[in-house]
């Protein structure tokens, strides 16, 4: 309960401050916090804008071609991930960023229009999903609207359990084929205002809250990927996986005999 209250307090103060290298305190005003975090920074000064978020099934887009109203169109990305546009025909919309899609559409219209000015805007996010697993009260798959931080994701999942280690949270990014892993100290984000530890999430990210402190991230992931890999390929299912705490006790995922269902609920 204390952790949940702490999350609520920090969210009201941070105003969705997506991980930057700037610091703020609980005494900062809303305006000061907003100004400090105007630029969203995930890692090493790389600015992340909404155009870099990956599009998914159900996202609604508004496509505008300047001075060519007949080509303007509002679309919803279907399960097959492709939409049909005037003149261009079928185009891949799922799994690409807004910037990449805008570039593809512009290239398609270059054949018919001199220097086409194409704008792609997101009317609503439906396909943005993240996984929040481990020591949270309601682990599962969650939809989110960027920008959303790791702490906000934990809050969506009901907050930390009493056993959750908020100073050793793992963020897995990049999918099953080429995952990247980062350990985050959310305790510092909560207590000290260290927002560099409270990163912004991208679609497909996995947030894992462990039961014990993770000293060696590489060793942890070599075991944990055996658990997480099947989950990354599914959007809704009941995954029966080896108990995650066995990994932290030095046992491999394959060696565990105890099973626990991890429920991945539909959005």
Structural overview:
With 267 residues, this protein is an alpha+beta fold. The protein has two domains: 2-49 and 128-264, Outer membrane lipoprotein wza domain like (Outer membrane lipoprotein wza fold like, Roll); 54-124, wza like fold. Helix content is 25%, strand content 23%. The protein has seven helices and twelve strands. A five-stranded mixed β-sheet has the order 7-6-10-8-9, sandwiched between helices. A three-stranded antiparallel β-sheet has the order 2-1-5, covered by helices on one side. Strand 1 and strand 2 (73-76) form a beta hairpin. The chain is elongated, with a radius of gyration of 20 Å. The two termini are 25 Å apart. The model is unreliable at 1-17, 19-49 and 233-267 (pLDDT under 50).
């Amino acid at each position: 309960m204390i952790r949940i209250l702490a999350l609520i307090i920090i969210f009201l103060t941070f105003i969705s401050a997506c991980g930057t290298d700037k610091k703020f305190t609980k005494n900062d005003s809303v305006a000061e916090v907003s100004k400090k975090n105007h630029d969203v920074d995930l890692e090493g000064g790389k600015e992340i804008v909404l155009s870099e978020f990956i599009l998914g099934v159900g996202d609604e887009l508004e496509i505008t071609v300047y001075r060519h109203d007949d080509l303007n169109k509002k679309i919803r990305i279907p399960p097959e991930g492709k939409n049909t546009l005037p003149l261009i025909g079928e185009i891949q919309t799922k799994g690409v960023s807004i910037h990449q899609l805008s570039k593809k559409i512009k290239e398609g219209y270059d054949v018919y229009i001199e220097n086409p000015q194409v704008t792609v805007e997101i009317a609503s996010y439906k396909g943005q999903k993240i996984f929040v697993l481990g020591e949270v009260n309601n682990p599962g798959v969650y939809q989110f609207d960027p920008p959303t931080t790791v702490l906000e994701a934990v809050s969506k999942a009901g907050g930390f359990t009493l056993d959750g280690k908020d100073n050793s949270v793992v963020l897995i990014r990049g999918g099953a084929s080429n995952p990247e892993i980062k350990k985050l100290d959310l305790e510092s984000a909560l207590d000290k205002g260290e927002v560099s530890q409270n990163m912004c999430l991208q679609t497909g990210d996995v947030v894992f809250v462990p039961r014990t402190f993770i000293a060696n991230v590489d060793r942890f992931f070599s075991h944990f990927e055996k658990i997480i890999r099947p989950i990354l390929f599914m959007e809704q299912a009941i995954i029966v996986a080896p108990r995650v705490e066995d990994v932290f006790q030095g046992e491999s995922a394959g060696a565990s005999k105890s099973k626990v269902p991890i429920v991945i609920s539909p959005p």
